[in-house]
Amino acid sequence: MAQNTRTVPAGTPTNVTQNHTKGGIGESTLRPDGTLKVTGEFAYSSDMWHEDMLWGQTLRSTVAHAEIVSIDISEALAMPGVYSVLTYDDLPAEMKNYGLEIQDTPVLANGRVRHHGEPVALVAADHPETARRAAAKIKIDYRELPLVTDEASALAEDAPLIHEGRDDHHIGHVPHPNIVHRQPIIRGNVEEARKRADVIVEGEYTFGMQDQAFLGPESGLAVPSEDGGVELYVATQWLHSDLQQIAPVLGLPPEKVRMTLSGVGGAFGGREDISMQIHACLLALATQKPVKIVYNRFESFFGHVHRHPAKLYYEHGATKDGKLTHMKCKIVLDGGAYASASPAVVGNASSLSVGPYVLEDVDIEAIALYTNNPPCGAMRGFGAVQACFAYEAQMDKLAAKLGMDPVEFRQLNAMEQGTIMPTGQVVDAPAPVAELLRRVKARPLPPERQWESAGENADVRALPGGLSNTTHGEGVVRGVGYAVGIKNVGFSEGFDDYSTARVTLEVINGEAVAMVHTAMAEVGQGGITVHAQIARTELGVTQVTIHPADTQVGSAGSTSASRQTYMTGGAVKNTCEAVREAVLEIGRRKNGSYHPAWATAELLLEGGKVVTDGGEVLADIADILEGEDAIDIELEFRHAATEPFDLVTGQGNGHVQYTFAAHRAVVEVDTELGLVKVVELATAQDVGKALNMLSVVGQIQGGTTQGLGVAIMEEIIVDPKTAKVRNPSFTDYLIPTILDTPTIPVDVLELADPKAPYGLRGMGEAPTLSSTPAVIAAIRAATGLEINKTPIRPELLTGTL
Fold this sequence. Notes:
By secondary structure, the chain is α+β, with helices and mostly antiparallel strands.
């Protein structure tokens, strides 16, 4: 950057043209936490320590549905080193339940357990092993009750009610008390449209229960404070939502529960609900000592919600020239024992069930059930993942029946800007569905059977089965599959979705320094990096400090729904703009007489200077602020208002923004052994504006890999006879490793959404949608099998199931 070395009065313009401030939006600046994480030096919540802390332990139910006849805690209390044992009867407040929307989840089981692994009692001891042994000494007498495990048992006339006496706001419009929420969407006339169809295809699809499988287990540290309150340091996705649920069950006003975000080791929706937060606080207040709780991997599988397993029933029709005529579907989501985010997941699944296609005649119904299975809630993709798997399988069926290319068939029916969704909402921003498909199809295919050309140097990792060395090329067949998906961005259906940012600008050691303070949960998505980039761009300063996230600033909402860069990034942008205007007002007051540009020109802050839009430097920011109090502004940011979907027709402008991604999967399948090697997962996605391209590509590749996992390996297995989880470990619940992850070429489009900050589009979830059906389509192409479930296991491919 050119430097001005002349001594001139403050506010006098120079003819030096400024470059943009380094490290601003559009640059791939490095993450401040990146090096610490890869070197093992980053402090996660499980690393926290207090010199006199106790260790908390949760005792969980060993059965899925039972009456608690008695609890005997005497042996546990008698153990040396045990400070406290708590059950439901020890809860301090009138409010004893919590929940994101419906407060139906008991802090500790009250006379009845509704799922395997439900919390029943708490122990605090001076050593974690002592706490575990004490919990094991608690004697609970259960009388098991009949199980509800699927749609048939949940909706039977004589079905046991999971929640008797429901009084939540959904009960009035569901046909059975074991339905959490029901959302129909009716548009056009399906019966008339069916008459125009030359071909009709039907399908029944099963989507397995996926775990978020974050590597950092649930953990936190609660410290009692002198005013009778509590300080909670925790890994979470939504500080203020936690606060709203924690304070009432502690019997404390919200201001006495002070929360600070600690290091988060991944989330993907699994930390949106309460896990150990209330339990740690209860034990800390009961013992008046700091209490730390850290789940092991086994307990983590019971300590958070999972992705809803689903049954999906679809019918599509099309004319002989390939135009879709109608769609009818029913989506049944298993919400498990407690509501969590099920109502919102139902809204997403129903409103996005048609996919990114033009359809004027639809009949849609989505429901979520209460069962005795593990509770399910938020996970990356949030209802749209299950639907995408089904409607993309339908597109392949239709294309095959019509003798059309599957990509061309999709392009023929692809939505675009101006398309009307089945809910009546107009897609008012770019929707480049056909272009995304064109790009993934146009990409060169990787060479086939690469191991053959390598001869003696062949790497077994390139073969199905990999290092197990079971496949040597016999029976290996290639398949190629395509898929595209649509996902909403932000909270929907009239929710008051907002984010808050506080920005301070002051002079420190002669340099203008900004501090950004939000309650955004950094869970690995790179938000703190982007916030600093926004501040540099808007304020023209190099030095930006990110204040630790806590509840001493207004809510930033959840780190979910692909919303944080849009929402909290938007809040940071708006607040920085207000700070910038305050700087310019001070500059006008101090220096306006030196040059008319102070009054007439478009002024910017760049490179530590106040400059005109023509590049003239008027003053140093530090000189303007010298002798002034720090500029400190806190503002809220809201997106355009949404509205609830009508409970009869499903009509309404329910979503803020839509985002799209397409995938092409290339697989090689050993058809004799049922082993699959995903060779490549190419993707194209419109992100509106890439604020940090390196982070964008990382998010797309990560989401793609998560979709790959549910296609071929990931599933929580729940025993249908006992409703018990059979594989709560990373030994038996498999996730993709580096050896399973293929090459993932990424093609990024930047078609701006004029309503969004910088034109950006929320992009973290979309790649998780279409990667799953693309992989499964490729396996279908390789094997010729009709595969209608996830995940695909070897025995399904070999016919030995």
